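Researcher: Good morning. I'm working through a list of sequences from a screen, and I'd like to move beyond sequence-only analysis. For each chain I'm collecting a predicted structure so we can compare shapes side by side. This is the next one on the list. No need for commentary yet; just the structure.
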Amino acid sequence: MNSTYSKGITFIELLVAISVLAITASFAMPSFKGYIKDRRIDETAHHIRDSLKLARSNAVKGDGGRLIPDAADGWDYWEVQDSDNNIVFKSQSASRIKVTANKATVDTEGNIARGSDSVGNTEEIQFSTIGALKIRNNVTVSSLRGVVFDVCSEGEDSSGKQIFVSQLGWVNTETCDCSNEVCN
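Model: Good morning. Structure tokens for this chain:
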């Protein structure tokens, strides 16, 4: 019995396989872009939350703890400093992610009401030795009800993360809607 076997694939078979692969990839691309955007938002929110917790922990230990935005770039870059102005931790938001911070209040039902006063580039979020929240600008230190950080994708209406720091220094992260001009 003498038969001929092919030890490879033809050019046509290769083109068909590549075409099928390209069509399949084109369907997956839009959802993959959304996945990447969500991961960037999550990463930035985790960095802010961890920075806040580190600053509070340092303050409670007596080392001083404050979170300071970069004066030029606002809350897209920030650092945690101790009482001697040493940088303990420095971080930045992921690419194409916008971070804003606003002073806030909480009503009796636990709903966060974002104030019209933003936490500006000259202000720092500071914690006392008992972990309570304070805002410090160049002139005064004041107590407040809380601070809300909004972490959203730049130029897109989508979901993002909201990080609330209570007056007592507790940090809570939730998913929020960025389409209502929170981060724009």
